[in-house]
Amino acid sequence: QVQLVESGGGLVQHGGSLRLSCAASGSSFSLYTMGWYRQAPGKQRELVARISSGGKRTYAGSVKGRFTGYRDNAKNAVLLQVNSLHPEDKAVYYCYARLQANDYWGKGTLVTVSS
After folding, report:
1. Please, is 96 exposed, middle or buried when counting C-beta atoms within 10 Å of its C-beta (0-12, 13-18, 19+)?
2. Is pLDDT above 90 for 26?
3. What's the Cα-to-Cα distance from 108 to each of 31, 65, 94, rounded to whole Å?
């Protein structure tokens, strides 16, 4: 089992940047698929970025070229660099981990973008 804690959210101006962090506790971190989802008010949770245990990265089309995901297996951490933020990027961003059929979620960190 793994516990996830996000940080790094906040208020940023349109076009600004943030770095979101996710600290994971537990064993076998390197075996997990890690990623980020987000949920905007009144909308369903959606995948933002995913990084496989082998390091393959997948992004939602709406963030490709603006967001970059990293994982540091030595530090049990996942980062999401978010650039060129738009007002529609406003959401709670959740870190998640998947191993076999088990999903784990953090409590989220809020990103607000002012226009």
Report:
1. buried
2. no
3. 22, 23, 4
- The mean per-residue pLDDT over the stretch 85-110 comes to 96
In angstroms, rounded to a whole number, what is the distance separating the alpha carbons of residues 45 and 92?
9
C-alpha–C-alpha distance, residues 85 and 72, integer Å: 24
| Other beta carbons within 10 Å of 33 | 18
Mean pLDDT calculated for residue range 69-94:
96
The contacts of residue 98 (CB under 8 Å, 6+ apart) are 32, 33, 34, 35, 104
